[in-house]
Amino acid sequence: MFSQTTEYALRAMAWLAVLDGDLVPTPHLAARIDVPPNYLAKVLQQLSTAKLIVGRRGVGGGYRLSRPADEITLLEIVRCIGPVERLSACPLSHHGGANGRLCPLHEATDKAAAAVIDVLGKMTLAELQRDPRRPLCAAKSARVVVPA
Question: What pLDDT tens digit does each residue of the chain (148 aa) get?
Fold first, then answer.
């Protein structure tokens, strides 16, 4: 349903939430979430531009969440990578559909978008941590040793 880039952003943010404020270097985070480091660096840049994470360069540097995990929704993360929007008109119609209503196809896709927005808008990174299955499927140990 979401792009690979969106999946990587969600994984990265979920683990940064688990690590609760520790600065995590890109290579360590990439290994933890099984994402190519160069690709992850680009994703982290997008998250940083959206002010969802903050970073520090150099020795002892890395990334961490910019605010508490209970203040960051999954919808914010997804929207940082690409749009998730409801439809107000049929994309191929120049007149907004018959009588200003969506056609049956686009009404269905609008309902799906509304459901995604609703669910992801209510779910925070902190809520992922409360799930006993941890934030990621088949995730490696939640304990990351970050060199000083």
Answer: 789 999 999 999 999 998 888 899 999 999 999 999 999 999 999 999 999 999 988 888 899 999 999 999 999 999 999 988 898 888 876 555 556 688 889 999 999 999 999 999 999 999 988 877 766 665 554 444 444 4
Which of 21, 25, 125 lies closest to 64 in space, CA to CA?
A: 21
Paired tokens of 101: 């209503």
| Start-to-end CA span in the chain (Å) | 38
| SS3 state of residue 24 | strand
Using alpha carbons, select from 92, 95, 94 the residue that is nearest to residue 105.
92
Question: Is the model's pTM score more than 0.90?
Answer: no
Amino acid identity for residue 137 in this structure: C
